[in-house]
Structure prediction request, 137 residues.
Amino acid sequence: MTLLPIYQNLRARILECMGDIIGTYSFEQGDIVPAIAIDDRGIYPPAGTKVQGLEVSIIPAVAANSKPLIGGCLIDHQSKLILKQWDSAGDTLEATIRLTGVLGNRINIGPRILPVSSIGNIESRTITFFDAQILRL
Prediction:
């Protein structure tokens, strides 16, 4: 059994509540899609992709613990939501507020890393998301 459906559901919920502020990925072949991805290998978006506006990366199960149950197990896991604002006129504040509404008290909000124009970095913030699932065996 995989946790992927959980993250696909989370992606859909985030897109529903933040669709109007999420930026875009423009791929080399011309496709343009919302800039939200489940990225468990650190390779998305692929090289050559242009990112505009707010990007949301969901990094699944960066830490997990399991507890045996009769007929299954309980998995407590932590995941990361990484917000990156590629627009110098934008920020991550509205996205953070909206994510708090979607995820409630199951998150730990990291510091807002502000852009420094002299080194050309972007504004970013990491949010740790805590969840638990019962997996039937």
